[in-house]
Amino acid sequence: MGPLIGAIDEGTSSARFILFKAGTTEVVASHQQSLSQICPQEGWVEQDPMEILSVVNTCIEKTIDKLISIGGSVNDIAAVGVTNQRESTLVWEKSTGKPLYNSIVWLDVRTSTTVDQLLEKIPNKTKNKNYLKPLCGLPISPYFSALKLRWLIDNVQNVKKAIAANDCLFGTVDSWLIWNLTGGVNNGLHLTDVTNASRTMLMNIDTLKWDPVLLHFFEVTPSVLPKIKSSSEVYGNIETGSLRGVPIAGCVGDQQSALLGQQCLERGQAKATYGTGCFLLYNTGTIKVSSSHGLITTVAYQLGPKSPPIYALEGSVAIAGAALNWLRDNMTVLPSFGEAQKIAEEAELQESGEVYFVPAFSGLYAPYWQQEARGVIIGISEDTQACHIVRATLDAVCFQTRDILEAMIKDYGSHLASIQVDGGMTANSLLMQLQADLAGVTVAKASMAESTALGAAMVAGAAIGLWDLSQHLEIACEIWTPKLSDDERDIRYSKWKLAVEKAMGWDVL
C-alpha cells in the first residue's frame, strides 16, 4: 500500500483523517466525524477542546481500521500533516493538559468590546484599525486570535492564574492537536507554523517571529506562545494511539492548505473555498503585497525552515454556507442544505423584483471590516416567496466574493480571469454559475474534493522527500463561464453595494 501520507483535517464543523498515496491525489482510506458548537449567547461561538481531540483521535483510529481491512498496515504511513480551522483560540494548563476555557471559534464576535478598548490605545486617538497592519498584515478585528486571547486574559480568572504561575499555554487548534499527539504533559511539542501564526496578530509578517511591539500592544506574555516553525519539516513523532512513532512533518492553516491542494503554487493564481464562510487567497509569491483596499496580507506557506515564505492576499467572508444553515434552522424556509439549488431555481420562474440579502450576522469581514454591520434583506414585495430569499442567499455569497475579487484587482493591478474553487457549497452547480455570472470570471472546480487535506499531505510528504511539489498534479475540473452581459452584471452589483450600505452601522444605532 505504501508509502502513504496522512492528513489530519480539523475544520469548524467536522474533522477527518485521510490517507493519500504519496505524491498523488489517490485517497486510500478516510474517516470523518462532525463537531458540535456551543453558543452561550448571541455572537459567541465555542467548541470543547477535549471533543476536538477525541474526534480527531477517533478519525485516525477508524481510518487505520479501514486501511487494515483492505490489506494495508500502519507501517505504510510515512508521515502525517495537520491542517486546521484558523484563528480559533485555545488556552490550557501545561502541567495537566486541561483546557482553561472552551475554544473560542474564529467567527465569534465577543471581542468587539476588546477591539474598542484597543483602538483607544492607538496614538493621537485616531482609532485606526490598520495601525498594526505594517507589522502583522492584519486589521484590528474580532476575527484574529490575539483579540480572543486578550479577552480570555481579561475575563477568565483561571487563565490569569495559570499565566501568573507560568502554567498556561496558548495556541490555535493545530498547536493543541500537535501538543497532545506528541506527548502532551509528557514533553509534548508546543508549536505552530507560520501560516497559523500569521493569523494571530502577534507574528511579524516579515521576520516570521513573535514581535515584541505586538506582544506589548496586546499585553501578551511570551511564555504562553508556541514556537513558530515552517509549514514543511519534521516536528517530532506521534506518541499516542496506532500512529505512535509516525512523524508529524507538516502543518498549515486550512485555507492556505486548500491553496496548495488546488495547485495554486504559482504567483498570480487564486482559489476560493466555500464552507461556513468563504475565503479567497491570491498567491503573490515571495512579494508581500500590502493591501489598501480591505484585504489582509498573510503567509501562504513556507516549504522548509531555509526556504523563503510565500505570501498571499486574502479576503474572508464570515457568512457563506452558514447563511443557508440559518435559513434552515432559524427561518425554517429551507428543508435541507442540499435543497437550496432546487428551491433557488424556482425563483427564476417567478416575478418578484430583485431581493438582496446581506448576511452580516456578526458584522462584515473583507473588504469592509465593519463589526457594527448587521444583516438586511431588501427589495421585498408582496409577491416575494421563500425561493426568492434562498436565491438571494446564494447571490450574497457570490457578491461578497466579487467584493474581494474587486479589491484584489485594485491591490495587485491585474484582473483574474479564473478562480479555482472547493468546499461543500461547490456541490451547488447553480451557485457556481451565479459566481461566474456575477463576478465575471471562469470558475473551475476540481474533481478531487479533498483539496484542504491534500495540501497538508503535500507539505508533510515534501518534508520527508516523498512528495515533489515542483511536479504539478493534473486534476480534472468542471468549468463554469459567465453568461451575463457586463452591463447586467454591473447593474446588479451596484444594487448589492446599496444593500451593503443599508447594513452598515446598525449595531451602534
TrEMBL record:
Domain Carbohydrate kinase FGGY N-terminal: residue ranges: 5-261
Enzyme class: transferase
All copies of domain Carbohydrate kinase FGGY C-terminal, residue ranges: 271-463
Membership in a protein family: Belongs to the FGGY kinase family.
Name recorded for this polypeptide: Probable glycerol kinase
One GO term of the biological process aspect: triglyceride metabolic process
Catalyzed chemical reaction(s): glycerol + ATP = sn-glycerol 3-phosphate + ADP + H(+)
Annotated Pfam families: FGGY_C, FGGY_N
Keyword ATP-binding attributed: yes
SUPFAM superfamilies, per the entry: Actin-like ATPase domain
CC terms in the record's Gene Ontology section: mitochondrion
Pathway(s) served: Polyol metabolism; glycerol degradation via glycerol kinase pathway; sn-glycerol 3-phosphate from glycerol: step 1/1
UniProt keyword terms in alphabetical order: ATP-binding, Glycerol metabolism, Kinase, Nucleotide-binding, Transferase
MF annotations from Gene Ontology: ATP binding; glycerol kinase activity
EC number of this enzyme: 2.7.1.30
